[in-house]
Design brief:
The chain has three helices and eleven strands. It has 145 residues and is an alpha+beta fold. A five-stranded antiparallel sheet has the order 5-6-7-8-9, with helices on one face. Strands 10-1-2-11 form a four-stranded antiparallel sheet, with helices on one face. A two-stranded antiparallel ribbon has the order 3-4.
Length: 145
């Protein structure tokens, strides 16, 4: 799958791609929209493109993720964290200073609870979660390319 972690304006994700359990390369999983929203997807590679296009087009209409295991996170410039599920369901995550999703989410949450940054949390997952692998890609809120 992958690991996505968000904390303090930073969204980080690994880039591992597998096919039938075999490592086949890496792909960009973290994206930035023109309005400054940052997002990433854990799950099916085909859904990665669907999520990217939806995020970069301004989140018009539902995000039609096909695989039930796919799930995206996006963070708006005001710092609100949103989850996107299969079937286009979108909801806000509240009550936490950090958030994680994907196969290594428990490890990432534990790392961030102990003070790790989002990027460090994903790096730890690369060591401990067999579905998470470097390189790690990062986007920051407020960064203007």
């Amino acid at each position: 799958m992958t690991t996505i972690a968000y904390r303090d304006g930073v969204l980080a994700a690994d880039s591992k791609v597998t096919d039938s359990g075999c490592y086949v390369g890496s792909v960009q999983k973290v994206f930035r929209a023109e309005d400054g929203t940052i997002g990433a997807l854990a799950g099916c590679l085909g859904d990665n493109g669907i999520f990217r296009d939806w995020l970069l087009s301004g989140r018009e209409g539902p995000c039609e993720l096909k695989d039930q295991g796919s799930e995206g996170i996006f963070v708006t410039p005001d710092g609100k964290i949103w989850n996107v599920y299969h079937g286009g369901k979108v909801f806000e995550i509240t009550g936490s200073a950090f958030y994680a999703h994907g196969s290594g989410f428990r490890i990432a949450l534990g790392a961030m609870a102990a003070g790790a940054s989002a990027e460090a949390a994903v790096r730890i997952c690369c060591d401990l979660d067999d579905s998470t692998r470097e390189p790690i890609r990062v986007e920051r809120l407020g960064y203007k390319p």
